[in-house]
Design a protein that fits this description.
Blueprint: H1 23-27, H2 29-40, H3 45-51, H4 61-87
């Protein structure tokens, strides 16, 4: 059963790299969508890190960049592979 996506969750320093959908992914579906929309809008990664990921890039630039980079990569993975788990009922438990 699919976990309910959280509206505006905090994120880990790095997104999952699992080849399958995780509970973390399910809870952050809206975060992934916001990252993809920000990319389409050509938003500055620093602004996205601060607003979407809740990490201040001025205080923690390396952490903020790494979180932004890995979560955006995971968002792209969701569009290619991860979505199929959602269609079939969610992450394996």
């Amino acid at each position: 059963m699919l976990r309910v996506p959280l509206l505006d969750p905090d994120v880990a320093d790095e997104a999952p790299t699992s080849p399958i959908l995780t509970g973390y992914d399910e809870e952050r579906l809206l975060t992934y969508l916001r990252l993809l929309q920000a990319e389409i809008d050509n938003a500055d990664w620093r602004e996205v890190a601060k607003i979407v990921l809740h990490i201040d890039p001025e205080k923690e630039p390396e952490r903020a960049y790494r979180a932004w980079e890995t979560h955006l990569a995971r968002a792209h993975w969701m569009t290619k592979k991860g979505y199929s788990y959602i269609v079939s009922g969610g992450a394996p438990h």
